[in-house]
């Protein structure tokens, strides 16, 4: 697909990016990093367009896959994407959260095929860490 995973982001607070328990990997909320910079800042429906929000969602997926690969040693261990929870910093009159998070869902299906189809929530919030427009967390079924 021509995609390159970024360098996995290092947590800046007291949490780990991935917890593996039995056959499940829980990936902490990922931000849209591009190197050491954030892709965009602000709220959808105010400073950030839907297109930029969709790009941010795709970057969150790439960052999530990067930390998952680091934890598992290989993405070949992914059996199924189980759940995606997307948070969208939204202006009060913005209601297109599902459209923004769908960019992440589409990338996961493009990457994993049928195994990339997942349950999902797209939640509008007042603010996100570091003033990013999108944050996404993931749950994966994994093979030993």
3D structure, described in words:
It is a single chain. This protein is of the alpha+beta class and 144 residues long. It has a single domain (19-142), classed as RutC-like (60s Ribosomal Protein L30, Chain: A, 2-Layer Sandwich), CATH 3.30.1330. Helix content is 27%, strand content 30%. The chain has 2 helices and 7 strands; from the N terminus they run ββββαβαββ. It has helices at residues 50-72, 97-112; strands spanning 18-21, 24-30, 33-34, 37-38, 78-89, 119-125, 134-142. The chain starts with 17 loop residues before the first strand and ends with a strand.
Features:
single chain; 144 residues; alpha+beta; 60s Ribosomal Protein L30, Chain: A; 5-stranded mixed β-sheet; two-stranded antiparallel ribbon; 2 helices; 7 strands
Biggest β-sheet: strands ordered side by side in the sheet: 1-2-7-5-6
Model regions low in confidence, pLDDT < 50 over at least 5 residues = none
What string gives the helices and strands in order?
EEEEHEHEE
Radius of gyration: 14 Å
CATH class: Alpha Beta
| Quaternary class | single chain
- Measured by DSSP, the beta-strand proportion falls in 25-35%
Return the domain count: 1
Structural class: alpha+beta
């Amino acid at each position: 697909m021509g995609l390159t995973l970024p360098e996995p982001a290092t947590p800046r607070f007291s949490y780990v990016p991935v917890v593996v328990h039995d056959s499940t990997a829980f990936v902490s909320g990922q931000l849209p990093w591009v190197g050491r910079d954030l892709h965009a800042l602000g709220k959808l429906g105010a400073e950030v367009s839907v297109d930029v929000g969709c790009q941010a969602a795709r970057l969150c997926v790439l960052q999530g896959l990067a930390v998952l690969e680091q934890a598992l040693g290989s993405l070949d261990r992914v059996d199924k994407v189980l759940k995606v929870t997307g948070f969208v910093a939204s202006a009060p009159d913005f209601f297109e959260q599902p459209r923004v998070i769908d960019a992440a869902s589409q990338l996961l299906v493009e990457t994993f095929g049928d195994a990339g189809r997942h349950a999902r929530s797209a939640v509008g919030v007042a603010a996100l860490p570091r003033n990013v427009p999108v944050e996404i967390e993931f749950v994966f079924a994994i093979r030993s």
